[in-house]
């Protein structure tokens, strides 16, 4: 690596072997980051806490130049988790580098609902939700609300709306079901509850389900809508809105992120709902306020999060509902600006430089060096930050490095997207914003 020209934050991004796109995304984040930094992408198995080093790909950004080198490096100042890591392993890491591991809580739908419902400021924004204990739970809940969702608890089973069923109880006991099959929304009708139950029970994926009250949200051209708000901590450690987007489904039931027909900025979409400027501003503020309340609730309960995708819906009265919280969001690609691409790097840099403040002012440094790992290598001392060294070429370790005891769980995948109910009344047809083109290539990574 080239020599440091200033004190640079040394940031680690832990990625999953089954989601290589997040590794590519790390480089793109650094390319678009306005400052200079050193970033290492690695797999959790390649982190060696005994020797206090990590094997990975190191990217150094100085001005417009970015260099890349594979090797073994000192532990970074900060670790940004882009995959599931066992909580016991996270605690081990934090004992070594401090509490600078963020996005460390990869939760499922039931955990998320139980966490948020504890907050009095969020309770009235949450649809009623129950855990499906056995098959007898479905009918009472369906009879109470007439329109419900069945959603897999485990995020890996609900990726891109797979395994999700919307169930409506019609007059005379008829039942209507909407569900995704391959790349299409399917609709099926049953003349009795017993026939519906016999059909659906074998289709429920393992890992458990939740039952959730369906919410009537505003429509666009008769199709369902939802609102995605990306929230991030910034370069001063404060929560900010990185992007707010209204998505229009390709069907009348609920949004399948991979198959949307249009995307609007929140302000443009709200203009199609009301002409009252004061009401429009109040609606937009309510969306942002709910997003901030979710983030602050996670802070209050002790979870170190800094990158969240929150799926909301707005009913015909302008009330905002929380459908899903995605702890592994993917930045939006399209005409609407999304600062969530770079804000995690801004926040990581803030943590790294804040961590160094109690130390004496460091001298100009060189990039962190690949460390040789011969058989006789002793455990190195804990490193608070990369030390000034001349970077040699990385050498192959003669011994396999010891990895932390961890499990790569299915949650290393992106969390799923939420699904919204259709409307009882149709809002005025949306005028598509002039910048509503959607880059279809990236929708499949949305949850």
Structure characterization notes:
21% of the residues lie in helices and 25% in strands. The protein is built from 9 helices and 18 strands. The protein is α+β, with helices and mostly antiparallel strands and 447 residues long. The strands form 3 sheets. Strands 1, 2, 3, 4, 5, 6 and 7 form a 7-stranded mixed sheet that branches. A 6-stranded antiparallel sheet has the order 8-13-9-10-11-12, sandwiched between helices. A 5-stranded antiparallel sheet has the order 16-15-14-17-18, with helices on both faces. Helix 1 links the parallel strand 1 (10-14) and strand 2 (37-42). Residues 1-5, 359-365 and 373-447 have low confidence and may be disordered. The protein starts with 9 loop residues before the first strand and ends with a helix. The protein has helices at residues 20-32, 87-97, 109-116, 138-145, 193-200, 266-271, 277-300, 343-356, 440-443, and strands spanning 10-14, 37-42, 47-48, 53-62, 65-74, 78-81, 101-102, 129-131, 147-152, 165-169, 175-181, 184-190, 209-213, 225-233, 239-249, 260-265, 307-314, 320-326.
